[in-house]
Fold this sequence. Notes:
Distance between the termini of chain A: 55 Å
Number of strands of chain A: 11
Oligomer: heterodimer
Subcellular location (chain A): Mitochondrion
Largest sheet of chain B: 2 strands, antiparallel
Main location (chain A): mitochondrion
Protein name (chain A): Glutamyl-tRNA(Gln) amidotransferase subunit A, mitochondrial
Pfam family, one (chain A): Amidase
Number of strands of chain B: 2
InterPro entries (chain A): Amidase, Amidase_dom, AS_sf, GatA
Amino acid sequence: MESLGVAAKWRRPGVRCGAGTGREDGRSGVRRRGVGRHAARFSAPAALKEGQITPTELCQRCLALVRSTQFLNAYITVAEETALKQAEESEKRYQRGQPLGELDGIPIAVKDNFNTAGIETTCASNMLKGYISPYNATVVQKLLDQGAVLLGKTNLDEFAMGSGSTDGVFGPVRNPWSYSRQYKEKSIPRSDSEPENSNWVIAGGSSGGSAAAVSAFTCFAALGSDTGGSTRNPAAHCGVVGLKPTYGLISRHGLIPLVNSMDVPGILTRCVDDAAVVLGSLAGHDPKDSTTVQDIFQPFALPTLTDVSKLSIGIPKEYHVPGLSSEILAVWSKAADLFKNAGAKVVEVSLPHTHYSIVCYHVLCTAEVASNMARFDGLEYGHRSDMSKSTESMYAATRREGFSDVVRGRILSGNYFLLKQNYEDYFVKAQKVRRLIANDFVKVFGSGIDILLTPITLSDAIPYVEFIKEDNRTRSTQDDILTQAANMAGLPAVNVPTALSERGLPIGLQFIGRSFQEKQLLTVAKWFEKQVQFPMIQLEEVKKHDDGVLQHQKSASFS
Amino acid sequence: MTPRNRFRWRVMRVLALCRWLRGGTVRALRLGAAAASSAPPSQVRQRLGPCRAVPCRAVPCHAIRGGNGLSSPVCALLQDSVTVEVLDHLERLALVDFRDAEGVERLREAVRFAERLREVNTEGIEPLDSVLEDRCLYLREDDVTEGNCTAELLKNAREKVEEYFVAPPGNIPLPELEERDTFLKGS
């Protein structure tokens, strides 16, 4: 079957595609003006426009990087042929002088729970292995309409349930920083010089593949999804910018849903400016998603903030949770001082129901999951069991074979909370607590606070062997604690990589803004990003393939 | 209505309810079975939105087989609330099995964890369904704007005949606990 043959080829990106590992003709390739971290993609369109590099060459370079960083397991499917075709079409447009926009010819990756026409969409689950979607998710379609080159689908936790990208059927995602010079230098020397056997750290989840793909320079931007922190958590661990937009701003049509009332597509990029550009092409009302707001969205360029004295930053004291590492606490305090010293008003605020938000999230998430996973019965798509005694037993067998323990556990918990005798005590109660949490934020923003500054993870990325010692639910409970309140209230939030930990791994901080005020949020984030000068990852593989790209790197002023 | 038809109508309604619970939206299986909901599909879709969660409000309490003494209110004590009857009922509702003791323990842990919600005083607080509750859910014009993609949609189905999805015989309930291949058997 044609589709099978193509899918098989995609899964093993060993197909030669020409240009390979470097330029022989002496041209320096993509020259990024300014620090790569700042202008990671902004120079790319300029370079494409000026003909310094063609979209096809850029695409081939990225594909070569994807191949050489295969050990990261960031990609489930690499769509080489279609990517090169898209790159060729983009090249023709540039030659005519008619690029579609800033994203024309830019390689991007998409998390594997977004439907992509003609490309396998698996959600890292046996249930959807081999499922070729007949349509593109709205966000994917919007990116393709802008001329972006879709490199492939990235790895995740199964059905986006998890906080480490370790629970998918295609294996765990490795954090590119595990192989960085910064991490290797700080690691305790081991008898085996290769760290990949045991020392590698998790990428965070559930959009770990997308974060790793962006962090390892295999693409310029990636789409993730954010239900409880699934974009911001891996962004923090992989040292990239992870934006969770306001609920209702970006269409969820085509995003295989986890929690309908909290899911949003997330954006992962290497700098805040890029995130704003991608947001500009994705945001806006979609008639196919009735939960998108009908307000007209105006794409914006981020102003460069010079004066923060009018800014009021809130530091929620409840986010100083037990288990927060002293390193993160120190970075958080330093960031608050940074704003204070620059003249901003930094105020301690209170979000009193923070302690209950993870419990509330747990109940609501499992309840909605129980409903959303009901669609997987093998009849119309996805895995189907051979059992054929009755419809019910076929459904049961299909779901038994297709879902992992994590997914089944959540479905069963969700159904428990939705039983008639439990409905009021758990589900409705959780909805009431959700209102209390949302009201906390309303009160704080109503008192004059512009942006909240909080930590985003409890510590830097931990080694995989340690991570798997606890089960998925425990880990999610621990790791989502600082991120999911923003999902409950539907507020925009962004992770900005701030500093390197003592182990040489990224630490990020989270900014939470008011509803639909992404411009203000990202402006402040951009200012902060400029102040902290987060260092670039030093990866051998990247150096091989992008000679001349990584011009210089700055050391973090926070370490 | 003859008694036989009344019985059939009642069975269809229960099945329809179960299907509605599981599917969240109306799914018209072209098997000649009864309509899955009394509301016409477009109305249901508009009421629910594209993919809104559908709480299992309609599960009748008597559906929990309490033949072995599940008479007291189930959520009294945590340990009492996760009985074999409840576990069996959950397996039937979710059409997902517990697989092993770890699965059951996972549920107990989840319930234990959720108990903390009781500490919060929510007197006089309304439940929050959606953060966009202040806005009107709009209706678009009831115009057919896309469709005619039967062949494409059928591509992903494993078993089909002409333009139909093929399902095994319906109206057959899941086997009882003792006859099912489940970890809970003999608990």
